[in-house]
Write a structure and sequence with these properties.
The protein has about 300 residues and is of the alpha/beta class. About 40% of the residues lie in helices and about 25% in strands.
């Protein structure tokens, strides 16, 4: 298999997780046809079909299952080798790059301060990641770990501490009927168009943050979503700290009864896990205190939040 392309292997791994060409393309930031091309090229190198595909269903062939079982740990080891080389090239003392969505809240900042105070040689770079792409920066290696809104159901990612469980609020325009109320319930919220996250956020994640049956517009960033709210294009579910931080005079934030609390979790890539990331996860779990738990799943991890 001379000339083997890493992108083909990455495409196969993502497709094996999604079993959907469109969603695989969203995660890889390529078109659906490009996913098909990469898979076809890999199958030509192997000499056999790895995936059964029809108009209704995508499934791995028995050879595809075997290939996946052998490839996944090898690909993880390759990513870990690159991460280790990068750390050595930086003298082993590079900053921890920590992604966050929307707002780095008090728990996160307390953990950053404690992590840096424990060793003056350690620093943390805070990097905002797009609202509509909670996992992409971790997968691309743009950050070492990220604080994201739950739910998380990603087999290639580790979910660390879960914290900052908060009652949800709904953001609406000041002209919206909800704006004059001191609270609304879940049925009220599901009866109005909700602004959702655009792709490449996974479908299950988008549904969790816009659970109503009425379709609303989608947004890539939180500021874009709030601008749509202010323009009266729809309502937006937000956790209480994010709502407080992003106060706008043209937007009202109304508490919601009857929805699951929102929650944040720390995630990182299983294949590039480092002791530095694990140590930050331990510090974050301690900083969260009563605000969360410090669960870590050894396998496929699912955690639900509002």
């Amino acid at each position: 298999m001379s000339g083997l392309e890493l992108r083909e292997l990455e495409c196969f791994l993502v497709l094996a997780e999604e079993l959907h060409f469109g969603r695989a393309g969203e995660r890889l930031f390529v078109s659906q046809s490009r996913v098909s091309q990469l898979l076809a090229a890999l199958e030509r190198r192997v000499g056999a079909r790895l995936v059964h595909r029809s108009s209704r269903r995508v499934a791995l062939t028995p050879l595809g299952e075997r290939f996946l079982e052998r490839l996944r740990p090898a690909y993880g080891a390759l990513r870990a080798a690159v991460a280790d080389a990068r750390a050595v090239a930086r003298g082993g003392a590079g900053p921890l790059r920590l992604g966050f969505q929307g707002t780095a809240d008090a728990y996160v900042l307390a953990a950053v301060a404690a992590f840096e105070a424990a060793d003056p040689a350690r620093t943390v770079d805070l990097v905002e990641i797009p609202y509509a792409d909670p996992f992409g920066a971790v997968r691309r290696g743009a950050v070492d770990a990220a604080v994201v809104l739950l739910p998380v159901d990603e087999p290639d990612l580790v979910l660390g501490p879960v914290f900052s469980r908060q009652r949800q609020t709904v953001a609406v325009s000041r002209t919206h009927p909800f704006a004059a109320r001191d609270r609304v319930d879940a049925a009220d919220v599901r009866a109005v168009p909700l602004i959702g996250a655009a792709a490449p956020a996974p479908a299950y994640w988008r549904a969790a943050h816009a659970p109503g049956p009425l379709p609303g517009p989608t947004a890539t960033t939180l500021q874009e979503a709030l601008s749509l709210v202010a323009a009266g294009r729809g309502a937006l579910l937000l956790c209480r700290p994010t709502a407080a931080y992003h106060h706008r005079a043209d937007v009202a934030y109304v508490p919601v009864d009857g929805l699951p609390d929102s929650a944040l979790g720390l995630v990182w890539h299983r294949g590039t896990e480092t002791e530095t990331v694990r140590e930050f996860a331990r510090v974050l779990a301690g900083a969260a205190g009563d605000g969360g738990s410090a669960e870590r799943a050894p396998g496929r991890t699912t955690a639900r939040g509002g």
